[in-house]
Hints:
Mean pLDDT of chain B: 92
Radius of gyration of chain A: 14 Å
Low-confidence stretches of chain A: none
Strand content of chain A: over 45%
Strand content of chain B: over 45%
Order of helices and strands of chain B: EEEEEEEEEEE
Low-confidence stretches of chain B: none
Radius of gyration of chain B: 13 Å
Largest sheet of chain B: 7 strands, mixed
Order of helices and strands of chain A: EEEEEEEEEEEE
Number of helices of chain A: 0
Oligomer: heterodimer
Number of helices of chain B: 0
Number of strands of chain A: 12
Largest sheet of chain A: 6 strands, mixed
Distance between the termini of chain B: 37 Å
Amino acid sequence: AQSVSQHNHHVILSEAASLELGCNYSYGGTVNLFWYVQYPGQHLQLLLKYFSGDPLVKGIKGFEAEFIKSKFSFNLRKPSVQWSDTAEYFCAVNAWGNFNKFYFGSGTKLNVKP
Amino acid sequence: KAGVTQTPRYLIKTRGQQVTLSCSPISGHRSVSWYQQTPGQGLQFLFEYFSETQRNKGNFPGRFSGRQFSNSRSEMNVSTLELGDSALYLCASSLASTSGVETQYFGPGTRLLVL
């Protein structure tokens, strides 16, 4: 069975600091990868996705993620966080051929201090 | 376009009862997936429906069931409720093809409390 690990459960940063959230998955086949964000009081929104091609993908609000196949990782990055980035971030993996069956990580709560 | 809508938004039930949750996907979306979100387990996949057929299933007991109607609306039913079923139930829809995966759009969820 697939699993997704997000090792940082809670991250606290000051504004303008750089962000990197880890995501590792366990599955040997072809995968589709996603990062979702849940702002306080709002529902899950897609931040970015990787299906194929350039392993460095750019999403909304200045976020990017890099797929490193050899490390089974899909880490999320942002060079300079803002207070409005305070949210919970979820990594999700879908095995190719599994249609819309997604495995989610446990989430990372990001708190950005103004 | 209107987003994914879920009703009701909040529910309180007692152990042993059953509950039905409803999800209306984004117009034109044919796939509906259901997830259970709890603080301890995170988001866990329940099942996916496409063209009124269950296409994928997670590892939940048979008390959890669902269906999809011809207009793509979906319902999820939980019978014989247990305290551990207290959770946020999320619905997600996607355009869906017969072969691939596409971006899922999530609804606000139904928060179920079992007493």
